[in-house]
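RECORD TYPE: inverse folding
INPUT: structure tokens
STRUCTURE:
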């Protein structure tokens, strides 16, 4: 029986990862969700598993060493999966400091506590592993139509967010290289799917379209992102934890590059094709909502992941193609209006007004 300590388990990818584990392993795993519940953390995401005896929620801050030490004393942790982070690039441009605190110092803290509890006289307890959930953004930006990020591509972050994630990766590497600490790093492309907070492109556009609000496209709308359905990311993480050699770094992505403007038009078209003719929510939806706004500062032009290594070593491949995944995602948001209402009340409105002035 493996015990997973999942940080940031109340966020978008973390909650999808926990639901994936529960579905895949049933009662044969223990899951400890460690989350401080920032604006991005939402325990509603985990309602379907919260009563299970092998699921435990612990409200704790990854920057707080004594809180983490208590948790490692309470649970015999086999795997640490570190999702907890400040994750939104636009917020990092406005307020970089919290990104350094959570993403860099939080990672160092978690690494150090894991090292302390897993150390033996001559190394580390067998079967233990730490996985750093990183991002393709640490590699920087590619030109319009050429090239891919490989694991060997030098790190060249541009935004405060990606700088903090790259720094965290270097600390993980330092622990692996210096102490032989058992860890892996995964670097995934843009995720989409259920439970994503509507500050990010896809859920923001769905929410705005349904409410007849403008659809704010940054710059010329031709920046490219490489989209992966969140469950495929969850599967990759678990595979790396269980099967990869420690010390290895893996890119995760499915060769699904799309310009932002293409994503926005796909969302409009899909909404119109899935909503019944007599559904009131159709009335607002139109291409006229698309509004080009000021570009993001330092906006990375293109991300594209080469996933060859994870395919070759671990036989990972993305199971959900984009046409299927985006439809499933849109249907999920249509079926979860209450969830969207809850997360867009309160702090979200202030954020939206300060950020967009629309
Ligand atoms: P998210 O913002 O939806 O969730 C982050 C979670 O971390 C929230 O539940 C929040 O409450 C928690 N958290 C924040 N600060 C904390 C702290 N100090 N202590 C404990 N918990 C804290 O983020 P996400 O989109 O699910 O991303 C998860 C991870 O995956 C991040 O590390 C991110 O860098 C990485 N990643 C994200 C994507 C993507 O497309 N979203 C792609 C690649 C990698
Ligand atoms: O309103 C918007 N308009 C717009 O044009 C928003 C929110 C975004 N965009 C553009 C900016 C990007 O080119 O869409 C693209 C995607 O933006 P985000 O959803 O903010 O994602 P991105 O900046 O690419 O970063 C994401 O992928 C990598 C995640 O937020 C990160 O956590 C992850 O590491």
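DESIGNED SEQUENCE:
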């Amino acid at each position: 029986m493996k015990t997973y300590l999942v940080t940031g388990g109340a966020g978008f990818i973390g909650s999808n990862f926990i639901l994936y584990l529960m579905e895949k392993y049933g009662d044969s795993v223990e899951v400890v969700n460690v989350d401080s519940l920032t604006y991005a953390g939402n325990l509603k995401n985990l309602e379907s598993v919260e009563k299970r005896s092998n699921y435990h929620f612990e409200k704790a801050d990854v920057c707080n060493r004594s809180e983490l030490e208590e948790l490692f004393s309470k649970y015999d942790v086999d795997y640490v999966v570190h999702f907890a982070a400040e994750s939104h690039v636009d917020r990092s441009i406005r307020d970089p400091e919290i990104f350094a605190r959570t993403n860099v110092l939080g990672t160092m803290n978690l690494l150090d506590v894991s090292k302390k509890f897993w150390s033996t006289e001559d190394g580390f307890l067998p079967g233990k592993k730490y996985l750093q959930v990183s991002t393709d953004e640490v590699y920087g930006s590619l030109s319009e139509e050429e090239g891919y990020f490989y694991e060997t591509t030098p790190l060249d972050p541009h935004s405060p967010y990606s700088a903090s994630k790259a720094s965290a990766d270097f600390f993980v590497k330092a622990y692996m290289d210096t102490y032989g600490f058992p860890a892996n790093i995964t670097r995934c492309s843009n995720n989409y799917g259920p439970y994503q907070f509507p500050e990010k492109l896809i859920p923001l556009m769905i929410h705005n379209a349904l409410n007849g609000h403008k659809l704010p496209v940054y710059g010329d709308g031709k920046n490219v992102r490489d989209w992966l359905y969140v469950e495929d990311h969850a599967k990759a993480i678990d595979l790396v934890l269980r099967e990869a050699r420690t010390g290895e770094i893996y890119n995760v992505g499915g060769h699904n590059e799309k310009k932002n403007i293409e994503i926005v038009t796909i969302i409009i078209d899909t909404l119109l094709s899935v909503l019944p003719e007599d559904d009131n929510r159709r009335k607002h939806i139109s291409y006229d909502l698309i509004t080009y706004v000021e570009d993001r500062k330092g906006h990375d032009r293109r991300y594209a992941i080469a996933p060859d290594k994870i395919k070759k070593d671990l036989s990972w491949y993305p199971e959900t193609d984009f046409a299927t995944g985006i439809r499933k995602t849109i249907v999920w948001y249509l079926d979860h209006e209450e969830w969207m209402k809850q997360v867009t009340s309160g702090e979200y409105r202030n954020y939206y007004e300060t950020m967009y002035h629309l």
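NOTES: The pocket of nicotinamide-adenine-dinucleotide (ligand 1) is lined by residues 7-8, 10-14, 35-38, 40-41, 61-63, 83-85, 87, 102, 106, 133, 135, 165, 188, 190-191, 197 (CB under 6 Å).
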